[in-house]
Amino acid sequence: MPVRIENLNFEYNPKTPFAKRALFDVTLDINDGDFFGVIGHTGSGKSTLISHLNALTRVQSGTLFVNGMDLSPKKIDFKKLRSTVGMVFQYPEYQLFAETVEEDVAFGPKNIGLSADEISQRVREAITMVGLDYQSIRSRSPFDLSGGQMRRVALAGIIAMRPDILVLDEPTAGLDPRGKQEILTLIKKIKQTCSIVIMISHNMDEVSACCNRIAVFSEGKVHGVYEPRELFAQKELLEKLNIDMPGVTNIASMLADRGFNVDRSIISEDELVDAIVGECQRRGLCAK
């Protein structure tokens, strides 16, 4: 089992007047093939959790296994771990630092001691995978690119490491609707090369469209793990936890409240259109 978290606890500034408990006995299994969503209001513990996955935050109590590596001991093989778990933080373009795109993307592979030929191949493949033209962009400064291009370069730097597990923290934050859709399409493409993708997001449309399982966090605890259709059908639970419905699910729920025979668990635009057309045909409001 690639990611096994059991009774994980974490406290910031322990044994000081500023101590704050961030995680309470978190237990999760994340399986091969999962596109795993992590949602919850601000301060619910999401980012603290994922920062444990490549030991940016060290385990205080509990157990954490990633691809068989025990992250609880004091000694961790950081090179192996960080070539296994790729982390893309919110606004990853702020992580760019090198003089050229090629140098930036090559930084990770160089750090794990790959040969020059292997690095060159990985850099070319990663830049191409994120939809950029290698020859025209390789020598450009990443800081001369558009925001969307910079984010693609930051993603390419992680892809070049060929991680088994990709962790994304609000990957579309700050982008316009077109940019968001392009990045989501790219992430789905990248998923084909990774065993697991874990994504934090406040955008429930993105979560419902991408994830097959979703962990809901509240006040540092796991409230539950759900399939998207199961979770977004629970209107009262979502309101209690201050979580928005996906837009299409909200429309379906509103129609159901007004007497339309529409499933409240709809999570895609195509499903919603089919349901509305079917109900209109049933009522004789449009031709079959």
Highlighted features:
288 residues, alpha/beta, six-stranded mixed beta sheet, four-stranded antiparallel beta sheet, 12 helices, 10 strands, 39% helix, globular
Termini separation comes to 49 Å
State the helical fraction.
25-40%
Beta strands, count: 10
Give the low-pLDDT segments.
none
Structural class from helices and strands? alpha/beta
Give the amount of beta strand, in percent.
Answer: 15-25%
- Order of strands, main sheet, comes to 6-7-8-3-9-10
The description of the largest β-sheet is:
6 strands, mixed
Average pLDDT metric: 91
Order of helices and strands: EEEHEEHEHHHHEHEHEEHHHH
Return Rg in Å. Answer: 21 Å
H/I helix tally:
12
Shape: globular
Explain briefly what this protein structure is:
The chain has 288 residues and is of the alpha/beta class. It contains twelve helices and ten strands.
Fold topology:
Blueprint: E1 3-12, E2 20-30, E3 35-39, H1 46-51, E4 61-66, E5 69-70, H2 78-84, E6 85-88, H3 101-111, H4 116-129, H5 134-137, H6 147-159, E7 165-169, H7 177-191, E8 196-200, H8 204-210, E9 213-218, E10 221-226, H9 228-232, H10 235-240, H11 247-257, H12 269-282
Parallel strand pairs: 3-8, 3-9, 6-7, 7-8
Antiparallel strand pairs: 1-2, 1-4, 4-5, 9-10
Helix pairs in contact: 3-4, 3-6, 4-6
